[in-house]
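I hope you will forgive my troubling you with a question about protein structure. The matter concerns a single protein, recorded as an amino acid sequence and a row of backbone structure tokens. Please examine both parts with care and let me know of anything in them that strikes you as inconsistent. Thank you for your consideration; the sequence and its tokens are set out here:
***
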Amino acid sequence: MKVFAIDPGNEQSAYCIMNDKYELLEFNKLPNKEVMDIMFLKLPTLDAVAIERVASYGMPVGREVFETCEWIGRYAQEAEKETNVYYIYRKDEKLYLCGEMRAKDANIRAALIERFAKHDLKNGRGTKANPDYFYGVKADMWAACAIGTTFLDMLKEKKNG
């Protein structure tokens, strides 16, 4: 099982490819068109695409949110040609990774580090000479890792439940 997880944005999106052993196979943050091209090339080797979906909580939003929603639709439409598309809400990430809805980005990152880091328990990255699980991961790539991890957790729960 390989999942292509996307943290969408209005101009750039972060993505990661993760297998069912939770190994990070590839990750980056690039302009949306480039992410789309990479996803298209990888589709024949993927079992699923997981995209973080925007949820409305009654607050006004701006142009950027609507443009992000458009990109979510574009990614989904392209991915559905070859594989299954799943939507992951931020609340699911918070619950699966941290166990509570009040979790913030820093809590999610800490939960990922605690779960996957082998020796760099502070940053999860390690060094060039001694890389750890998240070596090279930065900015929104953390969110893509959280999406992929949450998707795999939800899938395993569904199979076991």
Observations:
- The mean pLDDT is 96.
- The chain has one domain: 2-99+137-160.
- Residues 2-99+137-160 form a domain with the Nucleotidyltransferase; domain 5 fold (CATH 3.30.420.10).
